[in-house]
Structures are given as C-alpha cells and as structure tokens.
Amino acid sequence: MMRKIYxxxxxxxxxxxxxxxxxxxxxxxxxxxxxxxxxxxCMGLSLVMGYAGQISLGHAAFFGLGGYASAILTGGHGWxxxxxxxxxxxxxxxxxxxxxxxxxxxxxxxxxxxxxxxGEIVYIFFNAEIRLTGGPSGYTMxxxxxxxxxxxxxxxxxxHYLLTWAIVLLILLVNLHIxxxxxxxxxxxxxxxxxxxxxxxxxxxxxKVWIFVxxxxxxxxxxxxxxxxxxxxxxxxxxxMHSILFVTMVIVGGMGSIWGAVAGALLLTILPETLRGFQxxxxxxxxxxxxxxxxxxSGGLFGGGRLFLAWLSHLRGRKKEVADx
Amino acid sequence: xxEPLLKIQALSKCFGGVSALNDVSFFVxxxxxxxxxxxxxxxxxxLFNVIAGNLQPTTGAIYFEGNDVTRLSDYHMAxxxxxxxxxxxxxxHGMTVLENVMIGxxxxxxxxxxxxxxxLPAMRREEQDIEAAARKSLEFVxxxxxANAMAETLPFREQRLLEFARALxxxxxxxxxxxxxxxxxxxETKEIAALxxxxxxxGITVLLVEHDMSLVMNISDEILVLDFGSKIAEGTAQExxxxxxxVSVYLGRRDNSx
Lengths: 325, 258
Known about the structure:
The complex is a heterodimer of chains A (325) and B (258). Chain A contains 14 helices and two strands; from the N terminus they run H-H-H-H-H-H-E-E-H-H-H-H-H-H-H-H. Chain A has 325 residues and is an all-alpha fold. Chain A has a single domain (2-324), classed as ABC transporter involved in vitamin B12 uptake, BtuC (Orthogonal Bundle). In chain A, helix 3 (59-76) packs antiparallel against helix 4 (81-103) and helix 11 (240-253) packs across helix 12 (258-274). Chain A is globular, with a radius of gyration of 21 Å. Chain B has a domain at 1-81 and 207-258: P-loop containing nucleotide triphosphate hydrolases (Rossmann fold, 3-Layer(aba) Sandwich). Chain B is built from ten helices and ten strands. Chain B has helices spanning 44-52, 74-80, 97-103, 113-118, 121-140, 156-169, 186-201, 213-219, 237-242, 244-257, and strands at residues 6-15, 18-28, 33-37, 59-64, 67-68, 82-85, 174-178, 205-209, 222-227, 230-235. In chain B, the strands form two sheets. In chain B, strands 6-7-8-3-9-10 form a six-stranded mixed β-sheet, sandwiched between helices. Chain B has a four-stranded antiparallel β-sheet with strand order 2-1-4-5, covered by helices on one side. In chain B, strand 1 (6-15) and strand 2 form a beta hairpin. In chain B, helix 3 (97-103) crosses helix 5. Chain A binds chain B through residues 174, 177-178, 181-186, 188-189, 191-193, 195-204, 210, 214, and chain B through 52, 54, 73-75, 78-79, 83-84, 86, 90-95, 99, 102-107, 109, 111-113, 116-119, 123, 126-127, 130, 166, 170.
C-alpha cells in the first residue's frame, strides 16, 4: 500500500532536486523558492479545507508571525535561528489553538470569520507596533542572519532552493504518512460523514483543532524560512489578500489532496511570472486560466487528475472484459 | 441478580414544545437481543440517538454498566463499547471497504502525530494489527472478498453489512442497530437476522429498532413497544403479541389495513 505512495514521491523529489542543474538563473530559483513557501502553507491549509471542511482566511498572518518572530528573536535578541524558528512555530500553534478551540466547536463557517479577524489584527499589529516590528517600513532594528547548517551558511539562491525544498519534501512525506494512517483515516472519515465518524469514537472537534494548529505551524515555518532568505520582513506579504491567494491555490490544486496543494502553489506562483510578457493582459489571462480550471476541473488539478486516472482504469477494465469475453 | 448492561430511567426528550420521548424507563440485560418497535413517529430513532449520545435527553438518566452516561457525547459512548448502525447506511465515501472497517479500531489504537509522521516501528505494527482485526470483522459478515472495493460503489445490502463489520470492529458490548432490515428484501432480511443472531452468539448484547415484524418476532428475546414517545408494553414476543394495547395501536392497525 505504501509503495503506491512512495513511487510518485520519489519521482517528484528527484525532479525537484534536479531543477537547479538545469536552471541557473537566481531569478527563476527565487520564484521556485517562493513556491516552496506557499507549498508549505497550502499543504496545511489543504488539510483544514479538505478534511476539517473549514476555511481559514488568516494563514498569511501565521506566515507573518513566523517571519516576524524569527526576525525579532534573531535580529533583535541574537537567538540561534533554528531555536527562534521553533519558538515561532510554538507561538503560532498556541494562537491557532486559541482561535480554533471555540470556533471549531460550532457548525458553520465560524473559523473563516475568526481567522479573517485574526489576520486583520495581526496585520495591524505589524504596522502599528513600531517599536517591536518597525511598522509599515519593515523590520530594521537588527540584522537578520542567514541560516547555517554546521559550517555551511545558506547565503545564495541555490542553497536556499535546496534547503527550502528539502523541508517541503520532508513535510510532504509527513503529510502523506498522516493521510495513510489511523489519524488520516479519522480525518477522511470526518470529511465523509462527521456523525458516523463520531459513532466510531472519533473525537471530531479535537481533530479539527489539531489539524488547524498543524496548518498554522506549517505556515509559521514557511514565514521563518522566508525571513532568513530575504533578510527583511515588512507587513506587505502578510496582508489578507495573501490569505485569499492561499485558499485559491488549495482550491485550484484540489482540496484534500496533499499533491494538489503543492501543484496549486506551484502553478499560481509560476503562472503570474510567466504571464509577465503579456503586460496589460496578464491579469486577464490569469483569470481566464483560473476560470477554466474551476469550470472544467471542478475537483481542482488533482481532483481532475484523479478523475482522469479513474477514466483510464475504466478503459483498461473494459479492454480486459473484451479480452476475457 | 446481575446488573443490567443498560438502564434507562425516566427518559424524556422535547424538541421545542413537541415531546418525542415521554418518561421512558426500561433496562437491557446482558447477552440478550432486545427490539424496540412502534408506529412511525413513536420516538424509536430519537431514543436511539439519546442512548448513543447524539442527542442529550431533556430529563432522565442513562446507565451503562452501572455508570451514569447521561451527558456523554457520541464519540465517548463509542469508546465505552456502544456501537451503532444507521437506518440509512452511512459508510465513509472515498475510502475502501477495509479502510471503513479500520476506522472501527480507532479507539483501540493510539498512534499519535510523531509516531505517524516518522512511521515508527510501533506505529507500523499497530497498523498491521488494525488491518488484521478489520479483516476479521469483514470475514465475519461475509465481506472478506470486497476489502479493496470503494465503499460507495457497494450495493445497498453490502453497505449495510459493511456497517455491521465497522461496528463490530469497535468490539462493542452493546450494539444499537437502527432498522437493520430497512430497504432489504425478504431473503436479505433473513440474512441480516442470521447475522444478528451470530453477533449475539459472540456475547454482544443487541438493541434494535425495527419495522419488520418477522425479524423482530423471530430473533428478539424481549420487545419494547413505543407509541407517541411513551412505553406501552414490554415483554417477550408472545406477551407483546397478546397485549391488547399493542394490538390496537400497532398490530391491529396493520391487520385492519390488510
């Protein structure tokens, strides 16, 4: 059973690790690094949307909390970046728990409302707490260091690419393990029929909170990596518009599919860059492509992919029937 | 006398001004098959939902194995050993038959986040145990060959069998079966009756709600009759059949129309 999961994973990992052999442009690697951060965020968000059946409109805030916490703790207080990263993840996780605990108990889209408000509060906090965050012009109170592994300093796009995607691949593997386990089965059962899942002894409310906290921790991790790459944080990338972009990525990729989350993040990060040549029309084409995916692949890229696979096996089955008969 | 497995004490449930259950008391002895019958709207499914923890009673108390479980939620009841099947089948779509049954082992396993993320040996062993137990349950209901089919592609009869396998995988001490024969033909109903008898032989107490009188009369040790949310009779099949109130309210109505 696990073999079916590992083979596509290994192929994907090889492709990702071979890309820098062919692409030397720091600009393109930079775009792919960005896609890596968004993949991390979307993998968590996809679990929340696809399994807990809830929408978070505040994941840019968790992304930002990771970034700012890392910036302040390392740049302002001289902490070890890895330790700061873990502390940032804990802060984001605790905040997610505080939001998720009351709002996930209720039926309906209360999490969407709570996270929308939370995202706005965090954004205002980044802008207004000038003594701590530097305000609208960004964090300038200290120098954010590059990450180091032993004696290796992660100081160029090539190294950043490898580190970021190594972490994305690790989290991807963790998520694949979760989905194909006792916890994943419980999540899928919640997705399929909440009442029946409870009748099997699954504490559905606890699972939903747990998965939301996990997704916030992933977003925070992405934010910390971002801070140590750009070496600068400002409120801009953590605004509510980005939260909505993440939700769009998950929907385009296919809700509830871990692969879909990565595909959606890659597509919607690379697409605007490749459409730059069309100048004034790029937004129009971008919108057109999104519309096409939503209209003709209602399950998202990977929902559609699954349908395609089902169709293929259906054809194969028919051929076999013909051969047998 | 041994303590009853389930004791229901003066249970009432109101939805707004409508009282769906009205001062219902009874107990279920260990190791029996007990049926709850009654006309449509008598409160049978409400009673089930209250026992299973889906609904909270307005007043009254429920004791399971001597413990007060009145206010416990459904997932908690499942953990204590109360399993249920639903009137309209509720198998988990998008999952295989085997995976559906494996959910039944949820409360008997403990793999957490780190064990799962790292796929530690203990977790993999537990996963194998879960699968073995699930396969056993599937064999028990005669669905072993369908393990890898997607649950939603099964015909109705097999979805019902799957629900039984899933409930059995939880190793219940009490099985609540909500109209197990609903939607089945005569032959399939006999098959379900045989299955319930076989489950009973395993030492599992069964409480069922049913419309199909042949099923109820043949396999139940005791029958409870509800009408408009109140208990009107209780006893063996013979006793209930002879009870005038029951005949007029339930069986009688059926005879007249026939």
